Amino acid sequence: MFLSSLLFAAGLLVAETPDTLQAVTIVADKGVVVSRTDTLTLHADGASVGTLLRIPGLSLSDYGGLAGLKSVSLRGLGTAHTDIYLDGVRISNFQSGQSDLGMLPLENLGSTVIDYAQNSVSFRTARPVFGSSPVAGRVSVQGGSFRTLVPSARLDFRLSEGLALSAHAAGILSEGNFPYANTVRTGNDIKQVRGGIDLFGTMDRGEWQAKAYYNGSDRGTPGSLSWPSEDRQKDQNILVQGTLRQAFSDLYTLNLSAKGAYDKLFYHTAWGDSNYDFTDFQLNSSHTFRLRDWWGASLAADLERGTLKATGYEAARTAAILALATAIRLERFHADLALEYRGTFDKGAAGLHSLSPSLDLRYKLFPSLDLVAFGRRAFRAPTFNELYYPGYGNPALKPEDAWLTDVGIDWHRAAGKDWKLNAKLNYFFNSLKNKIISAPMPDDLNVWLPYNIGKVQAQGTDLSLAANYDNGSNSAGISLRYAWQSALDKTPDSYTFDQQIPYVARHTVVFAANMAKVDCFRLEALLNWRGGRFDASGEMPSWYTIDLSLIRYFNIRRLGRLGLSVAVRDLTDHRYELVRDYPMPGRSLHAGVEFKF
Questions:
Q1: What is the C-alpha to C-alpha distance for residues 362 and 137, in angstroms, rounded to an integer?
Q2: How many CB atoms sit inside 10 A of residue 555's CB?
Q3: Backbone angles phi, psi at 130, to 5 degrees
Q4: Is the Cβ–Cβ distance between 529 and 508 less than 8 Å?
């Protein structure tokens, strides 16, 4: 059956619990359809950026501790190539190309979708769930190692049958210091406050959401083991955004989203202070036309304006995206074809133009076995820092040019009414040219500038096996995932030629198991092992972690549900580094209490 909104779904997420506000959230962007995704459920009592490490093809850069910068990349393409979304709207950063995941309201999120074809990670706010009362909520406090305290609260109000309001607030207070190699890593303290309001609405043949969000923090930046520092960083993030999906008929559906955001970063260092003030405005629209039961077409247009006022320089950028797509839905064969134009126009500079085709195919060979494939071209415009940073920027840079391809099989079967079995095997090949790297100037080897001389070829396989049981009262699941990635530097004359690019693990194993009883308990275990990582200094040690978490629920008559939780991360206290000379904290213990009503 043809889904009227399919042409704009980079991921399609369904509300967790049926309610008068049940709706779908469309992560809409560029009018391109994809179906190569992984979905993770996030729990308010244990959500963290590290949850994303359950995905073998994903690399997480973490500079250690709660205060450290955290960013992600997929399949060897780099952080700047990975788009981050919050409730269907892009989180942009033209300055550095990196979005710090630490600013997201993790305790208020319900799920995340990792999209390999669009190279994106999309987060979705948990929808309100109401019982007989029009008011629901959650209050929790967690604390543990490194003198960490994390209070949070959320209130949901059903204002009418088709309208709900949700307000949330949370804080992180942590001294952050942890032992490492007979010393103590100091300067990891953080004070963070975040909160926001969401409105969820449904209407005849449509739904909408409006969001206002604030994040503020004051944190240390301790530097590396080789170059420790007493630097500090202050962040402020403010955004207001809205999304709308309206089907005017069986023929036509409109998707709209708009956003205004302000990000302020202040760095205090021994070398001087720096300010970065970035504003971002977006207007995104897509139009779906159902031409036949088996055939649809779409047109999408996005406009974004970003301005930066930084210590030492200023920059402004207007980005435009136009996309035309078509989809075919036959009984056993699905095909999606799109052509995307992207224009990037910086103040005082010539425009950058790119044209990207994409093709996504799925063929049902047997009732339980699908063959899948996709191919897509992708461009990444240079960041403001790469172009304009005083003493470093190179205004002549070209966009990075990448081809993404993937072929695979997807086996899925229901065993009885309670069991679901799934197995996937995918091979991917990504080729990136005009990679932006830093190199010495020919006439002065002491001055480094960014150049378009880099090439990367990344290929690999992803294998996943999963079995899940759910009879409505009890549930359990087990999964094993393995990924092999060969992401090689193919830059001519590079001193790392034919070597694995930094921090991409050649081998990844993820084992996860969970068991739960409704209104009683939930137990989860996770083993994560990664090996074959390199950086500019050579091969890095393999690392593994074992995480355990348990929450016990107690129903309090007529009042709500009380939950007591305990979690152990890095159970064996294995000391490792995701970024060289920035050690991770080691074993930590966290306990919490949560009350839902």
A1: 42
A2: 11
A3: -115, 145
A4: yes
Per DSSP (E only), the strands in 248-271 are 252-269
Give yes or no for a contact between 559 and 551, defined as CB atoms under 8 angstroms apart.
no
Say whether 50 sits in a helix, a strand or coil: helix
CB environment 308-347: b (16+ within 10 A), e (fewer): bebeeeebbbbbbbbbebbbebeeeebebbbbbebebbbe
Cβ neighbours of 83 (radius 10 Å): 21
| DSSP reduced 3-state for 100 | coil
CA distances from 504 to 120, 406, 575 (A): 17, 18, 19
pTM of the model: 0.86
The torsion region of residue 579 among left (phi > 0), alpha (psi -120 to 50) and beta comes to beta
From first to last of its 597 residues, what are the pLDDT tens digits of the chain? 322 333 333 232 222 322 333 323 333 344 444 456 777 777 766 666 667 767 767 777 677 667 777 777 777 677 777 888 999 899 888 888 878 888 888 889 888 888 877 778 888 999 998 988 999 999 999 999 999 999 999 999 999 999 999 999 999 999 988 888 888 888 889 999 999 999 999 999 999 999 999 999 999 988 888 888 889 999 999 999 999 999 999 999 999 999 999 999 999 988 889 999 999 999 999 998 999 999 999 899 999 999 999 998 999 999 999 999 898 999 999 998 999 999 999 998 889 999 999 998 999 999 999 999 999 998 889 999 899 988 888 898 889 999 999 999 999 999 889 999 999 999 999 998 988 877 666 666 566 778 887 888 989 999 999 999 999 999 999 999 999 999 888 888 777 788 888 888 899 999 999 999 988 999 999 999 999 988 777 888 999 999 999 999 999 988 899 999 999 999 999 988 888 888 888 899 999 999 999
| 3-state DSSP assignment of residue 386 | helix
Backbone dihedral region of 181: left (phi > 0), alpha (psi from -120 to 50 degrees) or beta? left
Sign for the pseudo-dihedral over CA of 25, 28, 33, 36: negative
Instruction: Sketch the domain layout of the chain as residue ranges.
Output: 6-396+407-596
CATH for 6-396+407-596 is: 2.40.170.20
Pure H helices in 298-431: 384-388
What's at 347, amino acid-wise? K
DSSP 314: E
